[in-house]
Amino acid sequence: MSLLRSLSDGLRSLFRKERVEEELAEELRGFLEMAAEEKMKQGMSRKDALRAVRLERGSLEVTKEVVRSAGWESFVETLWQDLRFASRMLRKNPGFTAVAVLTLALGIGANTAIFSVVNGVLLKPLPLTVEASKFIFWQQHSRVFEDMAAFDIFGTGFNLASGGQPEHVTGMRVSADFFRVLAVPLPIGRGFTAEEGRPGGASLAVISNNLWKHQFGGDPSIIGRTILLNDENYAVVGVMPVGFESRPSADIWVPLRPVFNPKNDGGPLFIVLGRLKPAVTLKTAQFDMKRVDEQFRTSFPGFAGKDEGVAVVDYQKHLVGDVRPALLILLGAVGFVLMVACGNVANLLVARATTRSREIAVRIVLGAGRSRLVRQLLTESAMIALAGSGLGLLLSKGCLLGLLRMAPGSLPQFSTIHIDQHVLGFTLAVAFLTTLVFGLAPALEMSGTDTNDSLRGGGGRTAGSLRHTRLRDIVVAVEISLSLALLVGATLLIRTYANLRGINPGIDPRNLLIMKLALSGPNFETTSATSEFFQKVVDRTENLPTVDAAAFVTVLPLEPGPDQPFQIEGRRNNESGDAQFRAITPDYFRVVRVPLLQGRFFTQADNPQSQGVVIINEALARQYFRGGYPIGEHLTITGGAATGARTIIGVVGDIREDGLDNPPPPTLFVPTAQLDNEFTQLMNKVVATSFVVRTKAAPMSVATEVQREVFAADGDVAAFDFRPIESLLAGSIVRQRFNMLLLGTFAGMALTLSAVGLYEVIPMRLLGALTRSVFAWLSAQRMLMFCV
Known about the structure:
Elements: H1 2-15, H2 17-41, H3 46-57, H4 60-68, H5 72-92, H6 94-123, E1 128-132, H7 135-141, E2 145-151, E3 158-161, E4 167-169, E5 171-174, H8 178-181, E6 188-189, E7 204-207, H9 209-216, E8 226-229, E9 232-239, E10 252-255, E11 270-276, H10 282-299, E12 313-314, H11 315-320, H12 324-365, H13 370-406, H14 421-447, H15 451-456, H16 463-501, E13 512-517, H17 527-542, E14 547-553, E15 563-568, E16 576-584, H18 588-592, E17 596-599, E18 613-617, H19 618-624, E19 634-637, E20 645-652, E21 667-671, H20 677-686, E22 689-695, H21 703-713, E23 719-724, H22 725-731, H23 734-758, H24 764-787
Parallel strand pairs: 5-10, 7-9, 16-21, 18-20
Antiparallel strand pairs: 1-11, 1-12, 2-11, 3-4, 3-8, 6-9, 7-10, 8-9, 13-22, 13-23, 14-22, 15-16, 15-19, 17-20, 18-21, 19-20
Helix pairs in contact: 1-5, 2-3, 5-13, 6-12, 6-13, 6-14, 12-14, 12-16, 12-23, 13-14, 16-23, 17-21, 23-24
């Protein structure tokens, strides 16, 4: 309250300034008269007495300034004076002001845009996660969570029937508390109740806002309407809010309904989300979940997963762990750009100091202290910083749109990235820090001006001018160092990206069309029904004049699939290992053009009645058979994919199954016709099957014909995600491309700003030569990018 009262008194004093000045002048004159009378009593004349008092007491104006500075109103008044004076000085030098503000706007705008991404991806608060199949027991016995929910992380989605051809929509199975844990209120309808989340509950669905608008026209009467998903009726009970995006992405959510069965825990694993109670730390949650897990083991000693532990990890880190380092590196890189921008503005201020040295000297002679001068000069810097921040904030909106267009679609929290109050706070903090960074050193330099030399108008190389020159040289040296660091990083990323583009994926991507099919309906619960559908679609597709060959595969190349353990028969201690698993139809290798190195491919004769067979890739043969001849050897896949011993009938070339930036993993290939019914049903439920077509024309020109043949084979199956396989190759290195483009852009910005800074310290001829060299380097890099 005292601070507010003082501020109020200070503001009131501004409006009665003239009267206060008159009272102060009257008091000082009275004091001088009293001192002069004492001198006159000693025999001095009135004129000499007044002169002697003024010499003893100093300047009357200085005395007034000292008296004024004693009150709070002095701070308010001098701040207003500093702002008005700074505004006049900046208006008098529009060229300097424009360059300084634009320079800062570039640095601050880029920083704000990158921070918006970091804020949306890394800093948004989310719940915690554990992986387990004991969800119900944890939900009942944990003490640290307000709510706990589970969801099925896999899923092929649903075929939504709405008249005509079915449409594929992504989906998730979630427990009743899912929406409450995420703290997402539904604008229309509701989520699931506890009763609806138990086995035997009604078939219900919550749909996304996007699906509601585009498929159902945004009709508010959607609540209660029945929709057909995978040939089953579901009643819509809720619509999600605009912008909500789950991970993984989904358009429809249906009840999960987990069953408590500790004697047989062979069901699928769920991701379990928990919202912690207030003031509960991650360490406390880990301790409590360890207690609950030990209680579960004690209560059910025969539980199949008794050796498993409980891992409580931050859900945010779980989602963005692979992109977190890259985003932080980019944030550091754009920070370098801001430092270069600050260095440029500091150099401009130091250069401007030479033209203001006489002004500063006059103010020092008139009694202005160094702190007063520093405050005035920092006020000018702050106005530049605020103007640069405002313009930078506007630029950041455009930068953010560009970032989101370039960003990979797999970037977590993509839809939540926007400029909010946290970003605005960050911008203000950057403005304050930049004021100190580029304003303080020049202000201290200028406030230490040599008054004698400045008032004489000396133009020689004084100590002050040499000090200014050294400061500018240091600043430019730092700018060049930062720019070179960014250039080196950008060059390395360009080379890495070029090397990745040159890697052989192990397949021939030319004229190769890929798409996905959701086979989770009741018509695909057995291997024979699924194989019959595959053969029907392949036959109809290969009869098209624009198609050369077609085949099915559970997981596409460059997309990591499930790992399956296996044992090699006849080896000491039954040597075992793990390998990627792919179930394929016979013509798959011919379609993607993978070379056969030993043995033979699958044929239609490799059916459920024939001997179990398997094809391995070269990486597996090299690792487990020392590059020898494994044809005729036997191995057993022990992960449930296909029981019994299988004979190795072929070795094929390696495919980059884990992406272009990873070496080919050991891989097992099994005919789809020889899978167990349970495994076929599970794969159809959790993984969308991929259809690969070798075309004779441009792949996308054949997409409509292929889609028509799929629909003709089964009117309830939707084919979706049509694209050439080149997009899959590009998508596997999209993050490397994103990082390369951003770091290259930041390096170019830093280099441009450094060139502007060099203008003040080196001759134009040398600057021109340096600029030409830089543009030559950039042109070479651009040509390299064009070539790759």
